[in-house]
Amino acid sequence: MKKLMISFIAIIFLSVALISWKSVADGAAVINDFGCGMFDGNGNFVFTDMSHAVVTSSGNGMIRCEATVGNTTGQAVVYSGFECGTFAGVTTQSHETVSASGQATLICHFNSH
Fold first, then answer.
1. Nearest to 97 by CA among 105, 88, 86, 87
2. Strands 29-32 and 51-55: what pairing?
3. Structural domains in the chain (count)
4. Cβ(39)–Cβ(108) under 8 Å?
């Protein structure tokens, strides 16, 4: 279910990217405050709009999302290697850390080469 949800989010990102990409000439497109799906400390899917993305003219991209989420584990939780949709494409170069207090940061990198 979680992979399906992240894949669905990736499709939305790609759709927006195709529209946004046409406005990028020789620079980088910077996109802020878009919807971003991530996990809480218990593995549940959560949604935030505290986000930042960059897509370069060479087709590389990254997203960074932050949120305060639930974490009842009492310790930091790390997720990595899951499918993540950037505005440049889908990648498994993904990493999310949720602190014991619930501060979550998701970072995904897409390399077009």
1. 105
2. antiparallel
3. 1
4. no
